Automatic annotation (TrEMBL):
Protein name as annotated: Helix-turn-helix domain-containing protein
Domain of life: Bacteria
SMART domains: HTH_ARAC
Keyword DNA-binding (UniProt): yes
Protein's UniProt keywords contain Transcription regulation: yes
Domain HTH araC/xylS-type as annotated: residue spans: 215-313
Alphabetically ordered keywords of this record: DNA-binding, Transcription, Transcription regulation
Length: 315
């Protein structure tokens, strides 16, 4: 498997502080991109723990029980993601505020997911900062905390404070972090892993790229892997010139449209090789290559191995 990252990069420790009635959807969209990044990179890039204030079990809004790995006061790391979600106001008390203020010294970054920004603001952690929150609570946050510059956005980062609106935005935020830390190639591969061409894109469109234009182009490529579209046709379908699309994709993903399209097709080929027992010839066809030799040449250039060697080695 190709190593997308620098082997000297440090492992990121992300802790998720859960409260009763947290959103299981938001939790999954926070953790799964990290899990996928580890798998696709072939090594551990991220570690995560589930925390509660007292170290006990917490129950999601859907009744899912999560036993905390530890209590907040005993942990430190690169990022603390605060995730109360529903009925968050009952968690806003002196003990929570003190615990969050104390955690600032132990975490490089404090982040509020879903309604988590409210608890951060109540603890004074967003004073003088730009922040967002789940759209249901935007107006109330503005009125209750005038010292916070509240902005309507999917997620925002202001220094060492991050705020995020909800489950779908959590996925976008984590994908963005993966790209910033480990490169746009890995970001694209993680996003594509959660995307279904048949459903029109299971992952949020914005997760594929930073801009809507590039996201739409990548989604179109993803939907036409077996029978690739010419790049000018992709540009036409999204209402852009080929030159404009090339400029935007280079700025966003660091590669040309042709390069991104080739990578998506090879990601598809690698998945089929590892997860199915169809022939290499059939893998080539399903990945938009005329024959196995054409796939093998492209595969070797991208992953430094051949389709047969990959399947034999299982990695």
């Amino acid at each position: 498997m190709q190593k997308w990252t620098n082997d000297l990069a440090t492992v990121q420790q992300v802790d998720i502080l859960l409260f009763d009635d947290f959103s299981a959807h938001c939790l999954a969209n926070t953790v799964e991109p990290m899990r996928a990044a580890n798998t696709l990179a072939g090594r551990e890039l991220y570690r995560w723990r589930f925390l509660s204030r007292d170290g006990g079990t917490v129950v999601s809004s859907s009744g899912m029980e999560v036993t905390a790995h530890a209590r907040l006061a005993d942990c430190s790391g690169d990022m603390l993601a605060i995730m109360p979600s529903y009925n968050f106001l009952r968690h806003d008390g002196p003990e929570t505020r003190r615990a969050l203020r104390a955690a600032v010294a132990r975490y490089a970054e404090m982040a509020g997911f879903d309604t988590g920004p409210w608890l951060m603001a109540a603890a004074g952690l967003l004073d003088g900062r730009k922040a967002t929150i789940h759209w249901h609570e935007i107006t109330r946050l503005e009125e209750r905390f005038p010292e916070v510059e509240v902005i309507r956005a999917r997620f925002l980062r202001d220094g060492d404070r991050t705020t995020c609106t909800g489950a779908l935005a959590a996925f976008d935020l984590m994908i963005e972090r993966i790209g910033a830390a480990h490169g746009q190639a890995l970001r694209l591969e993680v996003a594509a892993l959660f995307m279904s061409a048949e459903s029109g894109g299971a992952a949020p469109e914005t997760a594929l790229a930073r801009t809507r234009t590039v996201s739409r182009a990548v989604a179109l490529m993803q939907a036409h892997l077996e029978h690739p579209l010419p790049i000018p046709e992709i540009a036409r379908r999204i209402g852009r010139s080929r030159k404009d699309l090339e400029a935007r994709m280079k700025a966003d993903l660091g590669a040309t449209p042709a390069g991104v399209y080739r990578r998506l097709r090879l990601i598809q080929a690698r998945r089929l090789l590892l997860e199915t027992d169809i022939t290499v010839s059939e893998v080539a066809t399903r990945s938009g290559y005329e024959d196995p030799s054409a796939l093998t040449r492209a595969f070797r250039n991208e992953f430094a191995t051949t389709p047969r060697a990959l399947r034999k080695g299982g990695a």
